[in-house]
Amino acid sequence: MRPINILVAEDNPLNFELLQDLLESLGHRICWARDGQEALSLARTGGFDLLFLDLHMPRLNGLEVMVGLRGDPVRAHLKVIALTADAMPAVRAELLRAGVDGFLHKPLNLGLLVDQMEAAMKDDAGPTASSLGPALVRLPGSTAA
Predict the structure, then answer these.
(1) pTM for the full model?
(2) pLDDT greater than 70 at residue 141
(3) Fewer C-beta within 10 Å: the chain N or C terminus?
């Protein structure tokens, strides 16, 4: 995969740092949004190919960010992979209805993260059926088992 510009919306600094290290080691350029409002504002400036979006953040949650993005005709094309420790099927269904391009549970599986990135960057690619696989990379501070 060619290097891309990635916006990471994550309110936990340790989670962000781990994602940053992983993504930069793959050659990608990373920008950090510390809450949902900042994520939406930065996404609207353009220049990003992909957004990793934590579901539970202050100011605006991930679903509210998705509504804002998908309602903006200029930024509606931005590829989004949702990140959450919430494993409830209803949450995944709601995110898919909101228009996410991929879905990953925390703790993250590095292989699935890369697979989701590659799938999302293809035209009209949606989440893969394997997005609920076992954890290989545990994000610090994650409450998921």
Answers:
(1) 0.81
(2) no
(3) C
